[in-house]
Amino acid sequence: MNRKLFSTLLTLAFASSLAFGPPASAKSKKPSLGVRVSPRMAFSPVGVIATAELKGGEDSEEFYCLAIEWDWDDGSKSLQDSDCDPYQPGTKIDRRFSSEHYYSRAGNYNIRAALKASEKIVAANSFRLTVRQGLPQGPGDPRDPGVQ
């Protein structure tokens, strides 16, 4: 290929990238939410700490001042709202959220976290927790086989 043709093709490729923007693969992807719970498996009764982390997405107004709703799969939910100053370009967004919850009974629980911006879900995910039956804690504990 001669030098002039190569130069023309290179110029056209550069100009088209400016006109049409970056390829779809180079655009920022929709963020995801990672959820983990500690401990992963436990004996009842147990207190757990759940952590959700927003991965991907830009530090933009769309992800600023998010609320998180936890569904603990035991009939209870909790909501953590943020009280934020107005958004300023360049503001770093919160990406990590955590909450504690107490399980008194054994079971398999599907803990769900949903990040919300103005009641719109931005990202959501869940974690499966196994709580096994613990030993009786003492006299009067309903798990004690001697208690009627």
How would you characterize the overall build of this protein?
The protein has a domain at 31-132: Immunoglobulins (Immunoglobulin-like, Sandwich), CATH 2.60.40.10. The chain is mainly β and 148 residues long. 12% of the residues lie in helices and 41% in strands. The model is unreliable at 12-27 (pLDDT under 50). It has one helix and eight strands, in the order αββββββββ.
Topology, please?
Blueprint: H1 3-20, E1 32-38, E2 41-43, E3 46-55, E4 67-71, E5 77-80, E6 96-103, E7 107-117, E8 120-132
Which descriptors apply to this entry?
1 helix; Immunoglobulin-like; three-stranded antiparallel beta sheet; single chain; 148 residues; five-stranded mixed beta sheet; 8 strands; mainly beta
Question: If you compute it from the alpha carbons, what radius of gyration comes out, rounded to the nearest whole angstrom?
Answer: 25 Å
Order of helices and strands: HEEEEEEEE
Read across the widest sheet, the strand sequence of neighbours is 2-8-7-4-5
SS-based class: mainly beta
Q: Provide the CATH architecture of the domain at 31-132.
A: Sandwich
Helix content: 10-25%
What amount of the residues lies in strands?
A: 35-45%
Query: Regions with pLDDT < 50 over 5+ consecutive residues?
Result: 12-27
Number of helices: 1
Termini separation comes to 92 Å
**What is the molecular shape?**
elongated
Largest sheet: 5 strands, mixed
**Number of E-type strands:** 8
Can you tell me the CATH superfamily of the domain at 31-132? Answer: Immunoglobulins
Question: What is the CATH top level name of the domain at 31-132?
Answer: Mainly Beta
